[in-house]
Design a protein that fits this description.
alpha/beta; 8 strands; globular
């Protein structure tokens, strides 16, 4: 049985005071939630402050990005070990915004995943097609390349520390959500790819999240599908009540 994961990606929002206020509002709303792994991903400057507030709760801390070197002359970058030192248990890697605006490729995503695992973090590995790619009927080709190249050189044992997040780029921040059928089709395809790269048991164990305008109103339909194991939430994670509504999808 795969434990669902609901992760909130706060992107470039919330200074320290606002970040702390958000988790202070979230904690009582999800404190009795069981059977769901809860993750929040603030900006780097708020990690330590949020970590202090969620200590001893059922909320886990994630960073939004990392670099693939442990240290060195890499101004402006941050290493996985430093994130772990700041209290992170997870890190988001390869988000479409990183790929689109900051030139990340399947090769650099692969290097970051390996570094994250070496640094003791769970990697939330993001993949997904653009609207143009979907309209060109190349969704599966794009996902095949992203999964295959992103997981290159990663063992089945290491895959146990990776969560895949399928985020169709056309549905991120647009208000558009893939239908339950569209999301399930992509998730089933991704799980099939993992089966081919590894084995059925490994594929059955890996958790695959859906991301793209997830809200309390649509999460139940998505989570009812057999291959969807949670959500990577953007805008709806910036308010405690809406994020809690997604976390508590079983209620």
């Amino acid at each position: 049985m795969r434990t669902p994961v609901i992760a909130g990606n706060w992107k470039l929002f919330k200074k320290q005071g606002d970040a702390v206020a958000l988790v202070e509002g979230l904690i009582p709303l999800v404190k009795d939630t069981v059977g769901v792994e809860i993750v929040v991903a603030p900006v780097f400057t708020s990690l330590s402050a949020v970590c202090e507030k969620i200590s001893g709760t059922n909320i886990n801390l994630s960073a939004q990005n990392c670099y693939w070197e442990e240290e060195g002359a890499f101004t402006g970058e941050i290493a996985p070990g430093m994130l772990a030192d700041a209290g992170c248990s997870h890190v988001i890697i390869g988000h479409s915004e990183r790929r689109q605006y900051f030139g990340e490729t399947d090769e650099t995503v692969n290097k970051k995943i390996k570094a994250a695992l070496k640094g003791g973090l769970v990697a939330i590995f993001c993949i997904g097609e653009t609207l143009a790619q979907r309209e060109a009927d190349s969704t599966f080709d794009v996902l095949r390349t992203q999964v295959t190249d992103g997981l290159a050189g990663i063992t089945a044992a290491e895959l146990a520390k990776i969560i895949i997040a399928y985020e169709p780029v056309w549905a991120i921040g647009t208000g558009k959500t893939a239908s339950d059928d569209q999301a399930e089709e992509a998730h089933a395809f991704i799980r099939g790819l993992v089966t081919g790269l590894y084995d059925q048991g490994t594929a059955d164990a890996i958790r695959i999240l859906y991301g793209g305008s997830v809200k309390p109103e649509n999460v139940k339909g998505l989570m009812s599908r057999p291959n969807i194991d949670g959500a990577l939430v953007g805008g709806a994670s910036l308010k405690a009540d809406s994020f809690a509504g997604i976390v508590n999808f079983q209620k």
